[in-house]
Amino acid sequence: MRRILHIDMDAFFAAVEEQRKPEIKGKPVVIGGSGNPLKRGVVSTANYEARKFGIHSAMPLQTAYKLCPQAIFLPVDYEMYVAVSRKFKEVLHAVSPIMEDGGIDEAYLDVSALAEDNDTIIRRIKKGIKEKTNLTCSIGVAPNRLLAKMASDMQKPDGVTVLNEGNIEGLLWPLPIRKLYGVGPKTEEALKKQGIDTIGRLAALSLEVLAERFGNSYGRYLFDAARGIDDSELTTSWEPKSMSRETTFQDDVGEWQTIARTLADLTREVVHDMHERQYKAKTFTVKIRFDNFQTLTRAKTLDDYTDTEDIIRKAAFACLKRIELKKKVRLIGMRANNLRSDG
Predict the structure, then answer these.
(1) DSSP letter for each residue of 283-343
(2) Which of 49, 106, 169, 188 is catalytic?
């Protein structure tokens, strides 16, 4: 029988900051943008004390400030979080080589071939992560990645949940429909209009009904997922489709020099990422979002792959020249795609 673990670090960014600044522990902490809640930016994460006030990821910082003005707001220190992420994933690799990187703060682990029981494996993981990072994680244990992902969210922080065929009806089906992985706000709204507000009620629908309402592919997914069915394998190696950087100006910008300088900086960061991960690219795209939220993209494909900053910067500015800057700019982004690994 397959044994898949989903390891989810608890309020990761905020927890790392609490390690660096012990005096903020126990207080509501919000991480996002430049750390100034009066300026533009969104919440990257919030600790559990801040979440009690209704603050959540992707919320505008200004909204978070209105909900909890006494919270401690800190800027994102991505390089620090990546460094800590590597440490906890080293622990997981030492337990099993079959690991899927789920992001900076989560991962899946296939422990089916290990002789140890679940309790022993979980103790090893939690002890190792604590020793390496002094942080906690929540772990879901299940026969597939879908159930493991959902299980890890059931007892937070520092929890363990085992979800299998025997307790799907008791643990999975009473959950709100939005808790089902792969159900977004639009699907949630559509299902609620039909009186489907829990995973159990979704599981009561036939495949024919779901396929008729949501199409064959997504209908089949909802039918299987509501029953805890997932045959997908872990992806142990992953190739990025693109590398990108973007920035939102604190105040809308109309000066071409500022826009150009920012694009040059973003290009330099993208090239740095390409060098770090040993990739070259052939297509480069510039994104501009104006103050009225109109968004335009322009792309340029070169004759050959490159990781040379001068060449890439010229391609980016060739894209920028194809966009009329008659309105003020809110956001600018730069993306390298059509990648080739040189590692």
Answers:
(1) EEEEEEEETT--EEEEEEEEEEEE--HHHHHHHHHHHHHTS---S-EEEEEEEEEEEEE--
(2) 106
CATH number of 169-226: 1.10.150.20
pLDDT (tens digit per residue) in 180-190: 999 999 999 99
Mind listing the pLDDT tens digit for each residue in 106-161? 999 999 999 999 999 999 999 999 999 999 999 999 999 999 999 999 999 999 99
Task: Give me the residue spans of the domains in the chain.
Answer: 4-9+79-167, 13-78, 169-226, 242-341
Annotation says 106 is catalytic: yes
The beta strands (E) that lie in 178-278 are given as 242-253
Give 68: exposed, middle or buried? Use CB within 10 Å, 0-12, 13-18, 19+.
buried
Name the pTM for this structure.
0.77
CATH T-level topology, domain 13-78: MutS, DNA mismatch repair protein, domain I (3.40.1170)
Would you say how long the chain is, in residues?
343
117, amino acid identity = D
CATH of 242-341, one of 3.40.140.10, 3.30.1490.100, 3.40.190.10, 3.40.50.11690: 3.30.1490.100
Contact at 8 Å (CB) between 260 and 320? yes
DSSP 260: H
For 79, 126, 319, the CA distances from 46, given in Å and listed in that order, are 18, 22, 37
State residue 142's pLDDT score.
98
CATH number for the domain running over 4-9+79-167? 3.30.70.270
